[in-house]
Each structure stands twice: as structure tokens, then as C-alpha cells.
Amino acid sequence: MSTILDALQRGVDHYPGGRAALATRLRKADEVLRKELGGAGPHKLGAVDALAIARFCVESGRDCAYDYAQAVASECGGRFEAGPADQTPTHSPVQKIAFLMRETSDVTQTVLDAMADGVVSDNELAAIEREIAEAETVLRKLRQAARAVNAAGKPDHERASHNLPQRGATTEAA
Description:
The chain is mainly α. The protein is built from 8 helices and no strands.
């Protein structure tokens, strides 16, 4: 497994702004991400976070961007082959699901942390509501992305009659 973490670490090292920039994008403290990438002790990097880091690295287009994908494929007895960059539209609902998984994980963790002592304080309630609001935003963007993909498959005359976005229109990014 250290091969996989090493591959991810190479991507992090080559990411513009390095680990600190990725930690910010993941809404984590830089020190926490450092410990998670180290793979030792109580700090463990989750699969969703690793995927998010890998996606950010691929988006950057830097060296080692695909090392993580190659390492995972290799560990599973397969091989990784990067496809054309324009193969998946930026408004893909599948991409939005990764963001949704991250957000629902954050909601779950915040609620569990708040309930540890059996009481939810005002500050904890505010944190729970903030995480739920973030998850709702991602759900809204997922709905928009699914609608955009649906509209993209319709003929132009049907798109016009239903006030759907014209071909080539994009939705907001997550």
C-alpha cells in the first residue's frame, strides 16, 4: 500500500502550491493532510480524499498526475491508460458524485463528533448546519449536471421548446 501513497505523494509534490494548496481545496489543515499522506499513526487518508487529490493533480496537468491511478491499477492487477482530455464533459454527474461523497462524509463526521458527549452545543449545531448546507449545494450542482447531460442528448428542436440550454452551454463547477 505504501506504493499507492508514494504515488499520490509524488502528485502532491508536483501540484502547484504543493500540499498546502491541496489541503485548502480539501478543507483540511496542512498538518493533517501531511500526516494522512504519511500513512502512519491514527491519521488515515480516505479513498474519497485520495480520489479528490488525484483529480486535482490531473486537472493541474503536471508531472506525476497519473501516478496514483497507475499505482491503483497495478495493485489491482490491471493497467491504467489515460484517455483523451475532452472525453468527459466538465459537467459530468459522475464527477459531482465524488464531491457529494466528500460532503456527506463531512456531515456524518460532524454529527458524530457533536454527539460524542450526548449533547449538541450551539457551536456544534452551527457546524452541522454549515456542513448540511454545503452538501445541499453539491446536491443542487449534481441535479444541474444531470439535467445538462439530459438536455445535451435532446435534439435542438426539443431543447428550444423546453427552454433547455443550447448545445455547448456549461453548468457551474463544484
